[in-house]
């Protein structure tokens, strides 16, 4: 089962990026977390700062942990690409999740995110760090699919949708081995 292993993992850069994302969003504003997993560490950090949180994930085991640990939040089982709501959010997180979906769907998902944001709402996402073709790898003994546009194209797609980039940086650079890189973006929708 992936949930306990994932729940224990923390890369260390998340807090700094989440602080950048939350700057100017006044609690108890609603935040949407697409691909929320177990709610740790990002959902927990957001909740502890007084925000309302709606988490979306397709992994039942991860949502079970999130519901037990953080009953004050709303947890919904759904694939990111299937989730639609008329609700508006001050911010949307999609951390370490978008690159598990075929890149051909990314523009539509980013457009859907823009439609769910309140005026001047923000997003915080990670995308892959290279123009590597789609591949499958293992983590915690399970197979995971990976696919992403390279960072410059991800930034371009966001700008086309009316986002102003606040921060964009590599969290880990691509290597010649397994790591294809991880790039984070915080942006405001204008």
**Strand sequence of the main sheet, in spatial order?**
3-2-1-4-5-9-8
Largest sheet, strands/sense/barrel: 7 strands, mixed
How many individual domains? 1
Strand content: 25-35%
Straight-line distance between termini: 41 Å
Question: What is the typical, i.e. mean, pLDDT?
Answer: 89
Helix/strand/pairing category: alpha/beta
Can you identify the CATH superfamily?
A: Vaccinia Virus protein VP39
Q: Count of helices?
A: 6
CA radius of gyration:
15 Å
- Would you identify the regions where 5 or more consecutive residues have pLDDT less than 50? none
Named CATH architecture:
3-Layer(aba) Sandwich
The gist of it:
The chain is an alpha/beta fold and 190 residues long. Helix content is 28%, strand content 32%. The protein has one domain (2-189): Vaccinia Virus protein VP39 (Rossmann fold), CATH 3.40.50.150.
Descriptive overview:
With 190 residues, this protein is an alpha/beta fold. It has one domain (2-189): Rossmann fold (3-Layer(aba) Sandwich). Helices cover 28% and strands 32% of the residues. It is built from six helices and nine strands. The strands form two sheets. The protein has a seven-stranded mixed β-sheet, sandwiched between helices. Strands 6-7 form a two-stranded antiparallel sheet. The relative contact order is 0.16.
């Amino acid at each position: 089962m992936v949930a306990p292993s994932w729940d224990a993992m923390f890369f260390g850069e998340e807090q700094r990026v989440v602080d950048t994302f939350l700057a100017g969003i006044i609690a108890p504003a609603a935040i949407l977390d697409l691909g929320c997993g177990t709610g740790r560490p990002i959902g927990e950090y957001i909740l502890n700062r007084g925000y309302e949180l709606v988490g979306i994930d397709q992994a039942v085991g991860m949502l079970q942990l999130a519901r037990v640990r953080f009953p004050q939040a709303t947890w919904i089982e759904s694939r990111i690409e299937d989730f639609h709501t008329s609700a508006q959010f001050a911010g949307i997180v999609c951390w370490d999740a978008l690159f598990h979906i075929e890149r051909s769907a990314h523009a539509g998902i980013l457009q859907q995110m823009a439609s769910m944001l309140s005026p001047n709402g923000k997003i915080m996402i990670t995308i892959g760090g290279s123009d590597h073709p789609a591949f499958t790898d293992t983590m915690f003994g399970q197979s995971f699919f990976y696919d992403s546009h390279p960072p410059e194209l991800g930034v371009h797609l966001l700008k086309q949708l009316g986002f102003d980039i606040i921060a964009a940086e590599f969290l880990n650079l691509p290597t010649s081995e397994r790591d294809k890189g991880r790039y984070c973006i915080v942006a405001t929708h204008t």
